[in-house]
Amino acid sequence: MNPELKNNLSNSHYWFRALYAFIFVFTSEVAAMLLLFVAIGQIVFTLISGEPNRRLTAFGSSLAAYLFAIFNFVCCKTESKPFPFADWPEADTNDNVTVIKDAQ
């Protein structure tokens, strides 16, 4: 057996990282479902009030940033584990919210 392969297979760092990756993939599925509920809530709120709910917009933005952090970890772009091992990502404070108006 290749000594480098044997060393990699016996290195606990890789196995723990793989375990964290699987846990975060499951967590991303839950977060994606939550993001779907946020989107449905925004649709309903916008239909009723005519504009998006700012709190849902902020939460959706931070949830999307969390999903992005998970994907970066799972794809080995970073070694930084996302929440709960790091702070929850802050929402994009950009107030550029596009409101869809009737195009008549």
Tell me about the biggest sheet?
none
Shape: elongated
Number of helices, counting only DSSP H or I runs of 4 residues or more: 3
Q: Mean pLDDT across all residues, rounded?
A: 88
**H/E series:** HHH
Terminal-residue CA separation = 71 Å
Number of extended strands = 0
**Residue windows where pLDDT falls under 50 for at least 5 positions:** none
The computed structural class is: mainly alpha
Content of β-strand:
under 5%
Number of domains: 1
Radius of gyration: 19 Å
The portion of residues assigned to helices is 55-70%
Provide a brief overview of the structure.
The chain is mainly α and 104 residues long.
Your description of this structure?
The protein contains three helices and no strands. It is mostly helical and 104 residues long. It has one domain. α2 packs antiparallel against α3. The longest helix is centred in the first third of the chain and has 38 residues. It is elongated, with a radius of gyration of 19 Å. The mean pLDDT is 88.
Ordered list of secondary-structure elements with their pairings:
Elements lengths: L2 H8 L1 H38 L4 H21 L30
Helix pairs in contact: 2-3
Keywords, please?
104 residues; mainly alpha; 3 helices
